[in-house]
């Protein structure tokens, strides 16, 4: 999956907690999130405000959560593991390790992230 494809997939499925996201799709989307957050902080520093940081944080919260849940599904775990994010430090480390793990074979969330066909999107949209 390419950078643009991962970003598009993250926003097309911004509220889809079902299915799976491949490891490249997850990490490309995380790179996008980091770049947007940095841009928001830079704009805030230039303008002396916190408006852009808040907007980027709120705007990326749900898509980032859904990509994480789909990545957890890809490793064979339920999306409820995302609640580990609420545990300081330890939760983030555990989720980081889970995100690094290779894709699980076919499981209860689908055949695999790269073999799924999104029937709701037009051909070539993903």
Radius of gyration: 15 Å
Q: What order do the helices and strands follow? A: HHHH
Mean pLDDT: 88
Strand content: under 5%
Give the number of DSSP strands: 0
Query: Strand count, sense and closure of the main sheet?
Result: none
Which class of secondary structure composition applies to the elements? mainly alpha
Q: Percent helix among the residues? A: 55-70%
The number of helical elements comes to: 4
Describe the structure.
There is one protein chain. With 126 residues, the chain is mostly helical. The protein has one domain. 56% of the residues lie in helices and 0% in strands. It has four helices and no strands. Helix 1 packs across helix 2 and helix 2 packs antiparallel against helix 3. The N and C termini lie close together (10 Å). The C terminus is likely disordered.
Q: Main traits of this protein?
A:
126 residues; mainly alpha; disordered C terminus
What is the element layout, followed by pairings?
Layout: H1 3-12, H2 23-47, H3 51-74, H4 90-100
Helix pairs in contact: 1-2, 2-3
């Amino acid at each position: 999956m390419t950078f643009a494809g991962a970003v598009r997939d993250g926003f097309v499925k911004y509220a889809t907690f079902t299915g799976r996201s491949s490891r490249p799709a997850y990490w490309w989307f995380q790179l996008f999130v980091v770049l947007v957050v940095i841009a928001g902080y830079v704009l805030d520093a230039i303008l002396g405000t916190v408006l852009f940081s808040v907007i980027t944080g709120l705007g990326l919260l749900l898509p980032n959560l859904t990509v994480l849940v789909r990545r957890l599904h890809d490793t064979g775990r339920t999306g409820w593991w995302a609640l580990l994010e609420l545990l300081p430090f330890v939760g983030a480390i555990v989720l980081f390790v889970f995100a690094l793990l290779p894709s699980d074979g076919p499981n209860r969330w689908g055949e695999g992230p790269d073999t799924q066909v999104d029937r709701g999107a037009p051909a070539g949209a993903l």
